[in-house]
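Supplementary Methods S3. Input chains for the assembly prediction are listed below.
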Amino acid sequence: MSKLRFMTAGESHGPQLTAILEGIPAGVKIDKETIDEDLFRRQQGYGRGGRMKIESDKVEIVSGVRFGETIGSPITLVVKNRDWQNWQERMAVFGEPKGDKVTAVRPGHADLVGVIKYNRSDARDILERSSARETTMRVAVGGVCKAFLKACGITITSKVIKIGGVVDDFEAMKAKIDEAKTKGDTLGGVFEVTVKGVPVGLGSHIQWDRKLDAKLAMAMMSIQAIKGVEIGAGFECANLFGSQVHDEIFYDEETNKIYRQTNRAGGVEGGMSNGEDIVIRAVMKPIPTLMTPLKSIDLETKKQVLACKERSDTCAVEAAAVVGEAMTAFVIAQAMVDRFGGDSLTDIKQS
Amino acid sequence: MSKLRFMTAGESHGPQLTAILEGIPAGVKIDKETIDEDLFRRQQGYGRGGRMKIESDKVEIVSGVRFGETIGSPITLVVKNRDWQNWQERMAVFGEPKGDKVTAVRPGHADLVGVIKYNRSDARDILERSSARETTMRVAVGGVCKAFLKACGITITSKVIKIGGVVDDFEAMKAKIDEAKTKGDTLGGVFEVTVKGVPVGLGSHIQWDRKLDAKLAMAMMSIQAIKGVEIGAGFECANLFGSQVHDEIFYDEETNKIYRQTNRAGGVEGGMSNGEDIVIRAVMKPIPTLMTPLKSIDLETKKQVLACKERSDTCAVEAAAVVGEAMTAFVIAQAMVDRFGGDSLTDIKQS
Amino acid sequence: MSKLRFMTAGESHGPQLTAILEGIPAGVKIDKETIDEDLFRRQQGYGRGGRMKIESDKVEIVSGVRFGETIGSPITLVVKNRDWQNWQERMAVFGEPKGDKVTAVRPGHADLVGVIKYNRSDARDILERSSARETTMRVAVGGVCKAFLKACGITITSKVIKIGGVVDDFEAMKAKIDEAKTKGDTLGGVFEVTVKGVPVGLGSHIQWDRKLDAKLAMAMMSIQAIKGVEIGAGFECANLFGSQVHDEIFYDEETNKIYRQTNRAGGVEGGMSNGEDIVIRAVMKPIPTLMTPLKSIDLETKKQVLACKERSDTCAVEAAAVVGEAMTAFVIAQAMVDRFGGDSLTDIKQS
Amino acid sequence: MSKLRFMTAGESHGPQLTAILEGIPAGVKIDKETIDEDLFRRQQGYGRGGRMKIESDKVEIVSGVRFGETIGSPITLVVKNRDWQNWQERMAVFGEPKGDKVTAVRPGHADLVGVIKYNRSDARDILERSSARETTMRVAVGGVCKAFLKACGITITSKVIKIGGVVDDFEAMKAKIDEAKTKGDTLGGVFEVTVKGVPVGLGSHIQWDRKLDAKLAMAMMSIQAIKGVEIGAGFECANLFGSQVHDEIFYDEETNKIYRQTNRAGGVEGGMSNGEDIVIRAVMKPIPTLMTPLKSIDLETKKQVLACKERSDTCAVEAAAVVGEAMTAFVIAQAMVDRFGGDSLTDIKQS
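Predicted structure tokens for the full assembly:
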């Protein structure tokens, strides 16, 4: 396995969410406030519903960082659930089952499939983990990765570029979200993540599972509700001639630098970073929990019912964009460590 | 790691291409002709150039199959290069370097980046491996996976749906390819892969790197020249309301079956197969080697030059679709083995 | 990767130790008391020193278990450090460094090597993680694995069989430990782990990294201070003829069962469980922190010094045996899931 | 996964054995003769039987090496079976089954367990892959790894230290082997592998599956017939006091070097290389195929029979030692790449 890896754990309404992140080089300065800022950004965005007010996630670091600096050992990140006292019976770790089962499975969610796969009778056993709440920890993990990348001169940003068919015009996007909210409906959209300062040669062309673009695609598609991902010109490539797509290569004698005038490749050629900005976009489907619920069935009675209403956001593309940043940060950080080794930040900077 | 894994090896003009595929259950009937048919399909398609005539790939199986049946051990697949005698000097394994170096690196290829990363002076050391020729072995691997899946009632097909902006109309697509060829230019497009007969619950919602859609995205994006991938409604999700996107759930009393009337999810919900057809699309960029070459630089002299011309296809989307089938077959086969265990086909069929 | 995996995190004197365990099938009953019992056993044993009195580890489960049963999602296990208030300055996550650096690196420990590898100036940054305290979480992880295995009819036990050259005689072992303690010296020894009820065919012969004995060896050698591992007749095989080593195979017509009269293979043939008890032994070196310290150097001054004294146990082989049980439980549980699939306990029981 | 990985494939009497090795840095000089020498050494040794005369393995490299140097891409290694014409019917890839089934399963082999696990009726489907013949490819893989290590100043050697209870005295060992041969019996023994020139800090203390000693143990135990492994003082640690075991640390002012006067740790402390020689020993059980066969059963009839005689070696510890070198080379090479990154040999040498 790669030196850099992470796992997240925790149910949406359980006592806490946890992540263990391993392989960040020693000597990286960690700043809790910057991570909390990303956690805050994940909770915001026009179109978010009620639960957002309760939360206000703060990360606790309980291993792997000492005196504000990574020491090479695994980093444990914890976000406590502020709402736990309201859920401790229904989500109790031990004791007899309490509270109603969720049996009106929601279309577009893991509910039905998960119940079959894991042989459960209460869809809560599935939905608590499949919830986008899990991405909280990805953002925390991404925050640590970003700190490492920043020390290497690499920065990652994101923006929403489409909501409900509206492109770029933020006021029109908001109006569209208001319209959806009024209808009890939901909206999806597209966000774009950009990585600047990437060295040449992250990833590799030599095997299918070493390619940087393949890993980015996996990371992005793994985010809840993402249904598509594209790099650089992406799907537009299907409409253009080769001469319109590829980025010609130039050399500047004065600076002794190779450069391009365009970046339609989105920073990746042959499965490797080419030194240009990495540009990746992902599409999020509308949130599947509608206030005007969809038709579904009840798992116990098999009767037709309306799907249950677990959450009440109208649109969460801004939040997804923050998660997209985080997952991109992880993939790039992993590729950095794979390329340059790096048990300490000093090692990598000298490479 | 998963029980099912594979690696490919081999340079485009080397003596042979090789793959080792491990973890296919014992007892699966293997039919060389069916694999060769897929290899043939990969070589065909309107818009392919000269090299295709030389080749005519045939698979040799040299381990893991006995009397036409898998026995559980790793399967070695070999495709010999029919053109090897013309290349044995330039691609000699041992001996002094012969033949000219490739230094006019091609935009859109791994050439430049690979040379920097691996510290080479001859771009041939890179392009021989980054070439789409490598996908030959993925098709062979996919052929074995398909045989396993077929025995489980799962089938995989593909089709080209867009070329150079033309959708669905094959005559117009061909005209577009002819136009490109005349110009010395190239074209990309979109293909779609469909999987039928998928059981419920492949993949998992529990961790980012267990999700079936994430794995499909990685597999697809790992194919040479692919710049985007989408599942089900894909990027169209950014234009629709939630009520237009999610697939309502119904129950048929007579057959005692849960079903959907729509499949906008493309067969995956919550990172798991939901029993509907899996539908995945990928976009291929135009081939980067143009007969009217792009501007580039020479690695040695740093002078502006025209990129070298290694191949001469105009469009290879049909070939990519066959590779897309193969990679999808691998991911689904892997998910089957992960879900049902299965050291022998009998085990899996009984699950 | 395999479906079953875990990571531990946490420093010896940090606020808490954490583990995330993923892939335990849904539906396994979890009993906190049984895990705590193993944690207690790990802390006991003749020859343990002062710190043991402070601790008294208790596991908290904060994800993956609901109403006393696994639900398929990752299980987070936490053991709080009871002594944290005494260490919160020296081990503070944020803020200015406080307390003396450890620079008198201890022979036999990770101290010196770790400081070089991770480019640290304070050996505490290394020793806090390399400490055997980390195995606390392995015992907790093993406790969950054992619960799963028990539900499948598989049990795991261990015993100490040698201490400081004394074999089997516990009173003589204790006397030897007393002798070492008096001298300010330490002792190692050998323990044996036995697994009963193992089904045939865990592991595989088909590839080096699929072999059950290889995985057991890795798991055992990964325990702090372990320097050797053997299965069945082990090193004694070097003294015997083949006819004295191999276990002949018999068939009992009445029960329709294949059986052996001996188990010199220790339950593994050809990299696979053969249905007999798995018997594995490991040797632990004496604890490297001596009360009569060894010669070493100071990292800053390079002067010859006596190594620092971080802990004060005389012998910890009993504790290591409990960790050995845990790691064995993990490997066997992983092999069960690999062989039988198993997203729920019901699936596996039906296999 | 790590950048360095390999898989082997091929049946003992199939047309060829194959390995794919990926992740060796570009720029390593490869010398076919040196690999063939190791292949030859694997086939020799006092106590080998008839088949050895037929073989005489030669490696063919069919990818990843150009003009005698690695280019970064996967390396395909092939060893053809010189005896294939005698086996092509019994081991035919396609066509109707020919030749007798093997049903008299051999104690100490994978035969019985494999047949059950993979649901086969002919033990040949198992024994062809479980055979130690597979280690041929590990030796070839190890040969390439050794070439890489040698370029980094690291060398690996091995020696037999015990056969059938006889230690170090080679004439007495031979006599013991002669005795065994006369009886139709077999012998095992112990070999030792030594690695010189290892840099400090390969492996890591931070997680159980990152430890260098754990990986070495896995690699060694994965070799056919190995039943135990130990590092440095190994099992002798159970007989000694801590003051007799740990290697004190000294500093030499003149050379500005830290050093030890002893190496009872065998070069590994805290899961990391400490710069001293790595010393690892493994025990091989006597070959399970006896000319005076053991009792067993017939799979079809369930009658008591004598086990079949597939091979006729008396002792193969010298061969196992060569495989031990190879697996050690792989683990050390992997740890080098993990520590220093290294896409090209130049990168690693500059680290």
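The CA atoms of residues 54 and 80 of chain D lie 12 Å apart. The two ends of chain D are 22 Å apart (CA to CA).
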